[in-house]
Amino acid sequence: MSQINWNRQLGLALSLFVLGTGVYWLEYKHKPEREATEDQKKHLFDLQKTPVQSIALIDGTQPQGQSKATQKTLSGVTFQCQDFAAKLCKPGDSSKWELTEPLKTQADDSSVNTLLSSLSSLMPSEVIDLKDETAEKKAALLKDYGLDPESQKLAKKVQISTEKGTTTLTLGIAHPMGETLFALKEEGHPETFVYLIPNHFKGNLDHDLNYWRNKKLFSFVSQEITSFRLKGKKGDFSADLKANQWNLQSGSQEVMGDTNAFTSYLSSVAASSAKAIAAESYESPEAKSLLKSFTPSLKLDLQQSKGNEKDVPAPIILTLFEAKSSQPRGKLYATVSGRKPLYEMETTAMTSLDKSFEQMRLTRLMSAGEQYGIKRIEFSGSPLGPTPVILIQKNGNWVFESNSTEFPVTKINPIFEKLTAHHAIQEFIQARSAPSGEKDGLTVLLGDETTSKKRHYVFWKSKTQLYARDLLSKHNEVYRIDSPTLDVLPWDSGFFKPAEPKAPPQPEPSHK
């Protein structure tokens, strides 16, 4: 005889009890007439073609009387669309928003536009019509839904104002049998419909003030920056843009910068955003108290182009503050010239903003643009013997200068690919510390239509590593080169010999 599993039976009984209770609550105690017409089941807000003038989020459960600067939980926050006159402020528009309550400042446009999209797409899963209920029954039902007048005083609400008027959505309690909330919508007069909306929607009203504020550090675009100086933990250097080329300087050393590295870095700087507003003013007692055990660890001095302006704009100075060495790390603060707040940053911001001189240097041996101007290549040095090998470009083909015999482009292209690779240079080494072998190396001289010495390098091997020196550079340094470049360079004269023609396949002997 099998033994009854009483734990399992008890679990099933409890599940049936909960289910039965919910069904009873829904179908009998709260059984208003449902008229779920197609129109009533559509989106709660018709905003696709209606510009929104303002959005207010109200939380009556939160305490009043806190200072606007320190209030972390909101009793009310209001956004005013700055593009209302332009007929923007609709879902999908990149509209600009101003925070007007509990303080007047720039809002986080992305967050507010996301909220607007969420409101526009809000659809009820069910519509409950109370129009045929008696006044007493309707009042009792609204109380059970958490939507009676007394409950509404403490309820979370959303108010949307358009040129057509103001609509208020009031959130009630959660439905006991699903992940939905009871909600009441009013458009200038009380509605008889109660809507069941997704429970997760109320998360839009649970954010603190910092979430809704504009926390971007800068308003410029990266292309406007023409020079900067960075003094951080990784070093101190300056950079200037001249004739579309970034040049780096550190002390007496001046080198070309990597355009891609600068584009990426300045885009990251321009997009920098704070984690929170730590204090309304960096000069306030609150800010000074926060920075008491902190010290400046990075200073970035940015200069914009003057554009159409008469005078050059004032420099924009970003300063990051880290805890002193004796203090536990974990917070990062920032100030920006011309702006009052003390910002709290994500600790990862130090990694993205602090760069070394070497990280910003050109790590290609030549640019992709230069490659297409090269018309002459001369290979020489011990690996090839006493006679240089010279290739020139004629009619789009590479040929030997000595006899105009065509040389396969399939051997030239891989060399250019390695010379123009983003990280062809793996390391910069002082010449006195570089391994020997340069005098027996392979020399590569590249020229264009105006000069035979556009680029001039010597390559040599040491163990499994490849090294190079720029023979046109004034800097006494050697590069450690990406090792795969070894495989494409001509290390012996056999590289230039034509490939042996393959013998045609012999027919298989027939068998009688």
Account of the protein in words:
With 512 residues, the protein is α+β, with helices and mostly antiparallel strands. It is built from 11 helices and 27 strands. It has helices at 6-29, 109-120, 135-144, 149-152, 209-212, 259-270, 285-290, 349-353, 357-360, 368-371, 409-419; strands at 52-59, 76-81, 97-101, 105-106, 126-129, 156-162, 165-174, 180-186, 193-198, 225-232, 235-242, 245-250, 253-256, 276-279, 294-304, 316-323, 332-336, 342-345, 376-381, 385-394, 397-400, 406-407, 425-430, 442-447, 455-462, 465-470, 477-481. Strands 4-3-2-1-6-7-8-9-5 form a 9-stranded antiparallel sheet, with helices on one face. Strands 13-12-11-10-15-16-17-18-14 form a 9-stranded antiparallel sheet. A 9-stranded antiparallel sheet has the order 22-21-20-19-24-25-26-27-23. A hairpin with a 5-residue loop joins strand 21 and strand 22 (406-407). The longest helix is centred in the N-terminal third of the chain and has 24 residues, at 6-29. The chain is elongated. The N and C termini lie far apart (81 Å). 24% of the residues are buried. The model is unreliable at 23-29, 31-41 and 64-74 (pLDDT under 50).
List the helices and strands and how they pair.
Layout: H1 6-29, E1 52-59, E2 76-81, E3 97-101, E4 105-106, H2 109-120, E5 126-129, H3 135-144, H4 149-152, E6 156-162, E7 165-174, E8 180-186, E9 193-198, H5 209-212, E10 225-232, E11 235-242, E12 245-250, E13 253-256, H6 259-270, E14 276-279, H7 285-290, E15 294-304, E16 316-323, E17 332-336, E18 342-345, H8 349-353, H9 357-360, H10 368-371, E19 376-381, E20 385-394, E21 397-400, E22 406-407, H11 409-419, E23 425-430, E24 442-447, E25 455-462, E26 465-470, E27 477-481
Antiparallel strand pairs: 1-2, 1-6, 2-3, 3-4, 5-9, 6-7, 7-8, 8-9, 10-11, 10-15, 11-12, 12-13, 14-18, 15-16, 16-17, 17-18, 19-20, 19-24, 20-21, 21-22, 23-27, 24-25, 25-26, 26-27
